[in-house]
Each structure stands twice: as structure tokens, then as C-alpha cells.
Amino acid sequence: MSAEDADVVVVGAGPSGVASALLLARAGHRTLVLDRARFPRDKACGEGLMPSGVAVLRRLGLLDSLVAHGAPRLHSVTYRMVGQPVSTTAAFPPPPGGGPGWGLGVRRLRFDAVLAEALRVEPGVTFAEGVRVISPQRDAQGHVTGVITEGSAISARFVVAADGLHSPLRAAAGWTSPAPRDGRYGLAGHWRVDTRDIHGITVGFAGDHEWYQAPVGPDELLVSVLGGRHTIGAIARDYARSAREALPLPEGADLLGRPLAAGLFHQRPRHVAGDRIFLVGDAAGYDDPTTGEGIAVGLLLAERMAVHLDAALSERISRSEAAAAYTRDHRRLWADRRRLTRLALLMAGHPRASRRAISRAATRPAALEVLLGVNCGYWGFGRLSARDWLSLAGI
Ligand SMILES: Cc1cc2nc3c(=O)[nH]c(=O)nc-3n(C[C@H](O)[C@H](O)[C@H](O)COP(=O)(O)OP(=O)(O)OC[C@H]3O[C@@H](n4cnc5c(N)ncnc54)[C@H](O)[C@@H]3O)c2cc1C
After folding, report:
1. Is 106 helix (H, G, I), strand (E, B) or coil?
2. 9, 32, 38, 43, best to mutate for ligand 1 pocket (most atoms within 8 Å of CB)
3. What is the pLDDT of residues 35-76, one digit of tens each?
4. Does the beta carbon of 166 lie inside 6 Å of ligand 1?
């Protein structure tokens, strides 16, 4: 038994932190998870989990309990122009290696609570809620030896920062780069709507912003909106009226509670691993929620991080080899998804181009289906044929 309080301390019990902790504990490492919140806690999110994330949940043995908590399956994405009779639907393609070819509508209040419960019952994990982490703890040489919380210092051989988009731990480690000033923001609200006949995500392009809808329970529809600071600020003044004007919400749909806001999405840390710290999930950098891959990539990153950190903890590889291997995996997992996000934002910002592409895809959705496969990591952009590129250009 080592002298440290834990082998690994994981900061943050969102999807990335939970997956990291379960995997490290199952590999035999004493894992302590700290979250400043107490669960259930809510989180602004578009709540569409991509099929690649569903596959991770299945590998973790958590899928059945999430489905039992009412998360509906999502089979497709419909793209529409707000206020115009132009739309097209693309189905999620089957994963090349088999497995679930559908996403899930995950109401974060319930989803994250089920994940937190999985932590509580996992042997090898200690989960402490309501504990805010302030910074890494360092020894006299400046090496990380654990974390400092509001109340105490906790020593560990490694620290995993899964503390979200604005990761306080990343900032305290000096790894946060300044975000662009013209960053984007989002609002997410829930409506009481009978969703039993809704089986996909809908994205509505509205010029300088986009609306997203997804069923997250049999009678709950998520309605989120993304855009620049001023646009989202204006919508936030009367979110319910703006949503009713922009979307075909059924007569009698009620807004449940107040919408949650989040923003300044574009975050690129200087490093994702090194000096005994590993960043996973949003803490490891993020571009924009427009393609809805954040939770899935967080789960996939947790899997890769756990492989390399397990090897380092078991002294099969060195700390620096583990950090380098994880950095490579992080780059590989994000590379095409980042290109896709740039393409999606380009289209969203040019209504004439998006209208043309949607009209063309209505008769030929194949190119959009290839892009959904890129977003799931099934293949790269090389899969798009010249004909696909022409149809995305509306030709
Ligand atoms: C409007 C909007 C729409 C989105 N739409 C989608 C979508 O449709 N699909 C999708 O997959 N993703 C979407 N995302 C992105 C998704 O929400 C994130 O990618 C995902 O939540 C990242 O998970 P995480 O575990 O990395 O971090 P989080 O879920 O943010 O969890 C971080 C945890 O760290 C804890 N924490 C923070 N600071 C500290 C501290 N100092 N000490 C202790 N604990 C701390 C927090 O309490 C929190 O529980 C959207 C995001 C927004 C804002």
C-alpha cells in the first residue's frame, strides 16, 4: 500500500470523470472522485448522446440502467431551415464493427445521477460530493502530488481533471489558453411534450443561431439554442417566446423550469497530459456543441486515458510515455471531429449555403450520413466521394 490517500484522484463526476474512475478502479487502482456538486445536479446540455458514446456505456455495463431510466433512442438527425419549408433527415449509419447504431436522449439531471450512483457502488472507488478542488498540490520540486480542496490536501500518484469546460484545475495548473472573445454560448430548456413519436434530433438553422430538439423522456423535449453572445443574450430575455416562434412546438407544450446557460465553448488547453495530470472530457478542450459529440468524446477519452494511466500506475510504461500516448490519442480522436465542427459552423453561418445543402440532401441524404459516421469516429473525411462534396455544396 502506498502512502498516498489514493492512487488516482479524479476531479469531476460528469460522464468523463465517472468513466475514468470506473475504469481505473476496475484495473485495480484506488480511485477517489471529488465533485463540488451534490447529485442529482443539472447541467446545460443538448442531451443528445451519439452512438459512439452509447457503445462506451455498453462496454462499461451502464447502458441497461440508463435505458431503464427512460432515455429514448435516437435514430436520425433532421436538418431544417427555421421559418422555411426546407428539411432533410439523415439516419445514423450502422457502426462498421457492429454494436448500437443509435444515440440516446439523456436528460442530464437523471443521466449524471445514474452515473454518480454507479460510482457509489463501485468497489475501489470513493466518491465525495460537495468538495471543491482549488488546485494541484505540488512538492518542493514543483511536481504534482495530489490536489488541494477547500478543506484539505489530498495526495495521489496521479490527478485526472474531468472538471468541465472551464476546468478550474487546468487553469490552476497554468494550462488554460485564452478563449476567443467572439465565442459562442448556449441555452437549454425542457418542455412537456409527448415525444413517443419523435425518434431523432432536429437541428434548425436560423442564420446567426441554431435550435436543437431531442426527446429526453416519454414526455420531455430538450430545446437548446446556440449562437453568439448578443443573440443568445437576446433570446435568454424571453426564451419561451423565442422557442415558440422558431419551432413547431405542439399546442399546449409547457416550459418546465428555467433554461440553463453555458458558454465560451472554444477552449484549447496548452497540454492534455503531463506532470502527473491527465485532462479528460471538456477539460481537455472543446470546440462547440453544434455536432453534439461532447459526451461521447469525453467517454472515449476516458477509455484511452485509463489504458495509458493503468500502464503507468502498473509501471509497465513511464509517466511521460503515458502522457505522450494519451496526447496522441486525444489528437486522433478529435482531428476529424474538429474539422466537422468547423464545416458545421461554416454552414450554419451561411443560410443560403445551408438551405442549398439541405434541399439537395432531401433527395440524396448519403453525404450527411457519411458525415454522421465521421462524427461517430467510424471513418474519416476520405469516405466522402466527389459526388458527396457536390451535394453538400447543394449542387
Ligand atoms: C448548450 C449545450 C449543448 C450541448 N449539447 C450536447 C449534445 O447534444 N451532446 C453532447 O454529447 N454534448 C453536448 N454538449 C457538451 C456536453 O455537455 C459536454 O461535452 C459534457 O458535459 C462534458 O462532460 P464532462 O464530464 O467532461 O464535464 P461536465 O459534465 O461538465 O462535468 C464536470 C464536473 O466537474 C465538477 N467540477 C467543476 N469544477 C470543480 C471543482 N473545482 N472541484 C470539484 N468538482 C468540480 C462539476 O460539478 C461537474 O459535475 C453541450 C453543451 C452545451 C453547453
Report:
1. coil
2. 43
3. 999 999 999 999 999 999 999 999 999 999 999 988 999 999
4. no
